[in-house]
Amino acid sequence: xxxxxxxxxxxxxxxxxxEPIANPGLPAHLPRPTDVDPQKEKRAEIQVAALFGLxxxxxxxxxxxxxxxxxxxxxxxxxxxxVGGSTVALGGTLGLSLLFIGVAITHWARKLMGDHExxxxxxxxxxxxxxxxxxxxxxxxxxxxxxxxRRPLIRNSALGALALLGVPAVVMLRDLGTLPGDKLEHTIWxxxxxxxxxxxxGKEVTVTVPLMRISRDAIGTPILASDxxxxxxxxxxxxxxxxxxRYSVELEEVEGVNLQINKSKASLILLRMDPADIKPGKxxxxxxxxxxxxxxxICTHVxxxxxxxxxxxxxxxxxxxxxxxxxxxxxxxxxxxxxRPLPQLPITVDDQGYLVAQSDFTEPVGPSxxxxxxxxxRFAEDD
Length: 383
Description:
Blueprint: H1 33-36, H2 38-68, H3 85-111, H4 129-145, H5 152-164, H6 166-172, E1 195-200, E2 203-208, E3 214-216, E4 233-238, H7 256-266, E5 268-272, E6 292-296, E7 308-310, E8 315-317, E9 324-326, E10 332-335, E11 347-349, E12 355-357, H8 378-382
Antiparallel strand pairs: 1-2, 3-4, 4-5, 5-6, 7-8, 8-9, 9-10, 11-12
Helix pairs in contact: 2-3, 2-5, 2-6
Membrane topology: Multi-pass membrane protein
Domain Rieske: 287-356
GO cellular component, one term: plasma membrane
């Protein structure tokens, strides 16, 4: 008696055919109306060009709106939404300009570009030279199928619409702020110890501002060197942000936006360690106070605030991209994408035992910027 499933041909031992379902192939190609009717083809071409033209018009309207409408302008129709007319005009014109370009390209592809069905067989990840040449030929064929060479109306209208998209970018450059000059190179820590002129009893005299005390962040109390024990880490700010009168600073300099700007550059990390663990860089032998060191709190990679301390190694970890700095060794980068060490603030104590800054940071804090003249290998050369 023969076992079931042994009859017939083209079957495996499990009774399943080698090819259970035959490959039906591609369905017959159906031409589009624009493929067989020259009038419809021409009409589609004009429609695409018109869409590109509308995009160009709205790009020009964007520039007109920018120069004719002020930020404070408003129209009654937008009162309920509390949206300014300038905002609506700029957003609407630029949005419609981009929309019409997208619609034009989509309409062009659906109506006029080649729409032949193509089968691409699976192949190994590695490409042979023959396959690479075939890919180049496919790109060339795709360019030819766009018909851009024989459709100058679409080509020229598309180039015009795309070229005008540069206008909004150029126009909006007017909204850039003034150049910062050397503001990025200095912080409010430098206001301590300066000589300034004041009027006392009707006479102009020169006085020396006290060295800037280091205060606890948020509460503003000055920090005594004796307050810190080995391993303590403290987030700090300059005292001037809490007591501007002591340093002859106008109140408006430490309020509102100015306060945020000053805090963003002056934020500080204090860490106390065993003085024997410190490896001071050249010229930094007196920058600590009995093992207390002060560094910028702003990561030199992209400016994140950092305060994650590894107590046994004195490494400071940035939580954003894991840049790690050695606070015992001039803030050098030991891991991560940061391109330069954390700036160190030279500190000492005043006659009352409070921690004070000897001067401002000796280099710009925060991320690098184009104008910054910095040799990233300087610290390595100093060792």
